[in-house]
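Note to self: keep these together.
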Amino acid sequence: MLWLKTLIGITVQAFFLGAIIYLPAWTWYWEDAITWFSIFYFMTFFSCIYLLIYKPESLEARLNVQPSSQPREDKIATSLMITAIAIGLIFSPLDAFHFQVTPSFEGILKISGLGIYVIGYLFILASMLANEFAEMTVNIQDDRGQKVIDTGVYAYVRHPMYTGFIFFILGTNLWLGTYLSFGISVIALAIGLYFRIRIEEKTLINELDGYQDYLKKVKFKVIPYII
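Structure:
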């Protein structure tokens, strides 16, 4: 069943990301997007196979969505986060192909975007490998004996998966987008992450034993020595 859910999840995710990149561009003949999408699908497919074999509990947690038990404020924060990610992707083709308010990135900046995007994905994967309780919604999993994770990437920042999102989206904008889309992505992500992390940490402080001590041990939320 987990293998089937994973296959469906990969397909839905690929369709969603493909739609919000290709539809605004209104063309299939976009070589940079084909490169981006090919790398994404390759990384997603093989990382999911790895997780299915060696860390199925982490993948199962990530696929677990319980909207009925999700607090209202977390639903709002989750919606803001998804919207921020979508905005960060949609504005790349919109400005590059239609608005053309600002130029696209070129040279080293553009190429570095592809590397930053891959690093972002690897951060997300590292978060899942380290934390078997990383669900899409804020939910204390008492039935699974949830505990504070302070190893791996969680030893450096409290929300490494969001660190991954930042690199993923900003790297994508450097590779596919423009100066305008990059700026809009920064603003959208800042707003989405602020509310999401605020709600998440409120829940963890109130309901997860040991999280207060973890806050004292790991000072930074998403970027070491900065935020």
